[in-house]
Write a structure and sequence with these properties.
The chain has about 500 residues and is mainly alpha-helical. It has two domains: about 350 residues, no CATH class; about 130 residues, Rossmann fold. It is built from 21 helices and six strands. Strands 3-4-6-5 form a four-stranded mixed sheet. It has a two-stranded antiparallel ribbon with strand order 1-2. α6 runs parallel beside α8, α8 runs antiparallel to α12 and α11 packs across α12. The chain is globular and about 80 Å long. It starts with a helix and ends with a helix.
Length: about 500
């Protein structure tokens, strides 16, 4: 019996690895999108000795530092980024499965949880978001189930390190920890002892140290505050918002192309993500699951789910709903009997299945050239655009920017292996005058010869065309560059070439 108990954690880790390998195999050759290209470009920049936030617009540094070693081994190419992020998620999933098993979930439920949680780790470049929610939940559940100095330190540590991977993750974790500990202490699940409080605080301090060290790098703190706090408060949100997909409303434009049945299912899931955590928390306060180990997991999942719903609502597309679904799914595998778990698992797999249907490679698919003789290929969203970018940059000096790509084309820099001429490589938000002036100054100083600008409507909104979000930059391009007439590249793409002299541009005006 003792040997079987000791083997259980290893079984959970193997289950997690198998589930993640299976999902990775289904989507490893998925098309490269703007967000994933943004991540890949950042990893390339880190490998060149540049720091996130300080030297280029980025996510928080942790995901780049995690991805860098394997990406370097894979020649700086996309496969290394994808393997790194999936490895992170596999480790987090394994720990969550161990926790589920420890809280009393039967093996069939653990197996189903492994498959469903892995399948719902969508999109693939957001493995860090999915993984961190599992790590946060596991640490909090362990603290409530076994409150001692060790588990308190671990819970604090997780919250602190989360900041190194995502500012929003740290905010959600901090708020959820407060609710979890408050409710648990109120009902005597976690004793209010000084040594536990000190361990929790110490863990948080240790966890936050990597981020604090980054603050001492000149420019990092300024860019972080501007990117993560000042600009977000000024805009009223971190993401380009979409209408909330409540079941009684028409779905927002992000769900175009999704079948009506699945669109309706996503709308109901969005509502469930709001109501279920609140309902579970109310039930716990009313005395549900008292005296059963599962109360630790239910309380942690409910507390986390209440705040993570903000992430789903901030963008309200299938991707963000999927990223915020983890707490609800954990509640499902802790609460329902196996038969209901199986039924719900089949429904959830049906709902997410279309996101694993990738078209056969087209003529524009790319070999991951960093691997000698590699057969690994990936599609890009616009092969004609990439072919034109390759043509323009061919013969341009290496090590200097040749192309300015905007607003949502950071994947071009990554595929080309080129530096960006500007700090903001994902400039989809309306920019104030001072930031546009900075971009113009950077563009002028870079010596970039070409520009590729998509002036398409983002989310179907005219106010999000590049001409409206960055009118000063658009004016600069038209004054100092001339448009290259060529074949249609789609997406309202405009190609510019820098004028040799101002008089040249004036003559073309």
């Amino acid at each position: 019996m003792e040997g079987a108990l000791m083997a259980e954690p290893w079984i959970c880790m193997v289950l997690a690895l198998v589930a993640v390998v299976a999902t990775f195999g289904l989507r490893a050759r998925a098309a490269l999108g703007a967000d994933e290209g943004y991540l890949w470009f950042g990893v390339q920049q880190l490998l060149k000795g540049r720091l996130p936030h300080r030297d280029f617009k980025s996510y928080e540094p942790g995901r780049y530092l995690w991805s860098a070693p394997l990406t370097w081994l894979f020649g700086g190419r996309l496969l290394g980024v994808r393997v790194s992020s999936h490895l992170f998620f596999a480790l987090a999933l394994g720990l969550a499965l161990i926790c589920l098993r420890d809280l009393g979930t039967a093996w069939p439920g653990v197996i189903l949880a492994a498959g469903v949680l892995a399948a719902w780790s969508h999109p693939q470049h957001k493995q860090y978001e999915h993984g961190w929610l599992l790590l946060i939940w596991s640490a909090f559940a362990l603290l409530v189930k076994t409150p001692d100095v060790s588990t308190a330190f671990q819970a604090g540590l997780v919250v602190g390190v989360a900041l190194f991977f995502g500012f929003n993750l740290a905010l959600y974790a901090s708020a959820a920890l407060f609710v979890t500990v408050t409710v648990a202490a109120w009902f005597g699940l976690v004793p209010l002892e000084r040594n536990l409080s000190m361990a929790l605080l110490l863990g948080s301090v240790v966890g936050i140290l990597p981020f604090v060290l980054m603050l001492f790098s000149a420019g990092f703190a300024r860019h972080f505050v501007e990117r993560r706090i000042t600009s977000v408060l000024a805009r009223g949100g971190a993401n380009l918002s979409l209408p909330r997909p409540w079941p009684w409303r028409l779905a927002n434009p992000a769900f175009q192309g999704v079948s009506s049945a699945r669109r309706s299912a996503f709308q109901w899931l969005f509502l469930i993500q709001l109501l279920l955590p609140i309902g579970v928390l109310v039930a716990i306060v009313a005395g549900a699951w008292r005296g059963h180990p599962v109360v630790a997991g239910m309380l942690s999942a409910a507390s986390l789910g209440i705040f993570v719903f903000h992430h789903a609502a901030s963008r309200a597309d299938a991707s963000h709903i999927a990223q915020a679904a983890t707490p609800v799914m954990l509640i499902t595998f802790m609460y329902f009997p196996v038969a209901m778990q199986l039924l719900l698992s089949l429904m959830l797999l049906w709902l997410i299945a279309p996101f694993y249907r990738h078209r056969p490679h087209r003529a524009g698919s790319r070999p991951d050239a960093g691997l000698a003789g590699s057969r690994y290929r990936y599609d890009v969203g616009n092969p004609a655009l990439l072919a034109e970018a390759v043509r323009l940059c061919t013969g341009q000096p290496e090590g200097v920017p040749c192309l300015f790509a905007a607003p949502s084309l950071p994947w071009l820099y990554a595929v080309l292996g080129r530096d960006a001429p500007v700090y903001d490589t994902f400039c989809v938000h309306p920019a104030p005058a001072h930031l546009q002036e900075q971009m113009i100054g950077q563009l002028r100083a870079s010596g970039a010869v070409f520009a590729m600008i998509s002036n398409a409507r983002l989310d179907g909104r005219d106010d999000l065309r590049f001409t409206n979000t960055h009118p000063m930059v658009w004016s600069y391009l038209n004054q100092h560059f001339h448009r290259v007439v060529g074949h249609d590249l789609g997406n309202d793409i405009h190609v510019f070439r820098k004028c040799a002299q101002t008089i040249e541009c004036q003559g073309l005006a």
